[in-house]
Predict the 3D structure of the following.
Amino acid sequence: MSGYEYDFSEGIKQYKAIMNGGEADFIPATTQMAEFCMKQGGHNGRRFFSDPELFVRGNLSVQQEFGCDLPDLVWDVYSVEAEALGGQMAWFDDLYPALDNTHPVIRDEKDLARIKSPDPFKAGRMPWVLEALQICRELSGYTHYIHYCAPINLAAQLVQFEKLIVAMQENPPFVHRLMTFIVEEVLAPYVNAYFKVLPDATIANGKDAVGSLPFITEDMLEEFSLPYLLKLRELCGNRPGVRCDNWWGDSFAASAEKFWETKLKVTPQYLKIQDPDCFRVGTDRARRFADEKGCALSFGAGTLILQKGTPEQITQRVHEYMEVGSRGPHGRKFFLYFCSFSAQTPAENVRIAIEAVKRFRAGDRPYAGQVFSGPDGIAPESAGGKGFMGMGVKALAAEKKEPERKKVFQEIYESIMTFDGGRCARLVTDALEAGEPVQDILDEGLIPPMGRVGDLFAAGEFFVPEMLMAAKAMKAGVEVLRPILIQRKSKPKGIVVMATVFGDLHDIGKNLVGMMLEGAGFKVVDLGVNAKAEKIIETAKQVNADVIGLSALLTTTMPFMKLIIQKIKQEGLRIPVIVGGAPVTREFAKEVGADGYGDNAPEAVEVCRQLVTRTPELA
């Protein structure tokens, strides 16, 4: 016994051994489960994430009850620094709070010049984080590491993701100045304040979901992410524990091994690979690489399998990851990661997952020798062809012969494929002056390249930035035509009301779909993020919508899709609804009564076309 109110001493000992370069006596399992603990304890979200003692006790009590190995404190990591810089928060009763970045903190160079460095002991909830970590130390004896929002992710929070991507292409000096400010004036003082209040601390862990593939490209990662993470470590006394371990996108990298080399630069203690990438790339391949490097290794079992998997499926995943992860000459430097137990994860599934860990340790291994992961494996949570944002779900078809186009239309096509919006606008102007019909310019010049972009995206050869830049180039050409279309009162192909559902402030995928719909001739009414059913229904009535599009990135907000669809039907509206988002599947769309499902932006556009023309067979 440790003598502390909450005793995690054995798990802490094993985890520390691995972090210090040694070997563990048994495989420790780490978690991310604050939202689950909040729900399990019956706490209000606003109070839970603003009262440090409630937050710590609420987490530790549930984690001890369920038999977790280590304390886990993962607050709304992507919000704290941006909130301290003046960002507005959205609070929810039963979800993580989130930054509402519909009104960016930094819009231009002037904003960047005016903004002040936050005081970690006074600004926003930075002091709350520092106090919570001290309370955790007092109650459990564990010096829990601080989480920080990694530089690129924080930049996206401050200026909005799409604008950041465009700036990387069009104004890289501004992005570099922004990143320098973030590292030198925000993150380094914050992390160093943590090391000051907890002198025995050794680790500061960055979270960087948006700074991962496929949200950014590998070139962007090398230029705008890696140097600033290394700079942050330098400004924090060159502590090797100043790291960033949760990059995903391994399965989208040109070479997984090269990507892992980069990961080890920012997290030298170990290599972490989490689902869905871990299952796609395969545990065997990752184990071989870690053995070659002699490094510690961690596999992360993903949110969806933990939330929706059967007992057998959860146990299979846990046991494969533990067996492969712990074998070989460096197998005792392996730990498991549950990423994550959310408010939507049934308590029974949490028990099953933790019990699976204990069964494996005790030698009860019904799936010994069985490896389900790898390029040929089919993850139960991805059955039916679900990819990440619709990427990697199909191979790129053989280059088909493009139809013969007039020279000007071919040049418009090429300008979009090379992301040159200025050239696209000039070519559209030239086409108009040459007497080309507006509809021909749309149908033969502007719309076809987006179909090709969609194919490249679905094949994993284009990432989100390429889609954004192509859509931006197309939009530049559409804007030239817009006055003519308005003057002629050209009827759009359909009116689509789009929204990210209540509780969710993510809009990258929704915005991509909106841009591509506009390029395809639809009128888009975008209600933004955190949209309630009443607002969506009211707007759909006002604009006489042909389709309603609902997006969600969080598994915790997916249930709101069902609620909205139910209310639409209760109102007697015969407006078809299409749903999409990273965790949303075709099966889920059917379960909630949606009329269509888009696994990626191009597919969503095609489904809208079918629904507007009242295709009898729904997508």
Q: What stands out?
A: Residues 421 and 473 are 4 Å apart (CA to CA). The first strand starts at residue 29 and ends at 32. The two ends are 58 Å apart (CA to CA). Residues 615-619 have pLDDT under 50 and may be disordered.
